[in-house]
C-alpha cells in the first residue's frame, strides 16, 4: 500500500538520485498527519465553543488539580508560546467567564489564573469528544503499533530537547 508521500519520494529518486530524500518520508507524513489532526480537532472543539488554544489553557488548569490554578508563566511553559500569545488566550477566556486572573495571596506581585466552574464544565464536556476524535484518528493502528509510535515520537521529541520544564507552578 502506498501513500502520496511514496509518490513524492519516487519522483525525487528519479529526478535527484544523488540525494537521500528519506527524511521526507517521515517529515512529509508527520506534516500530513498534523493537518488531519488540526482539522479534526478544530471541528471537535468548535462543537463545544472552543478552539485549540483555549482548550490547551483550560486543560492545563484542569490537570493542575484543585484549586485549578497556575501562573501565566506556567501556562506559557505548558503551551510553549510567548507571553503575548498567552495573554491573548487568557483575555479571551476571561471575557467568556472560563477563567479568572487575580493577585496571588502568597505573593501580591504575582498573578494567578484560576479555572472557573464554567471553565471546568466546558473542558469536562469537550474532553471525552476530544479523546474520541483522537481515537478515531488512530483507528488504522492496532494498540501495539500505537504504543510503538508513541515511543518513537517521544524519543524524537526528547532528542530535540522537548522535555518538561519544572516547576509548572511558577
Automatic annotation (TrEMBL):
SUPFAM superfamilies xref list: Winged helix' DNA-binding domain
Name of protein: Transcriptional regulator, MarR family
Molecular function via GO: DNA binding; DNA-binding transcription factor activity
Domain HTH marR-type: 1-158
Keyword Flavoprotein: no
Record's keyword annotation contains DNA-binding: yes
Assigned keywords, A-Z: DNA-binding, Transcription, Transcription regulation
Highest taxon of the lineage: Bacteria
Species the sequence originates in: Blastococcus saxobsidens (strain DD2)
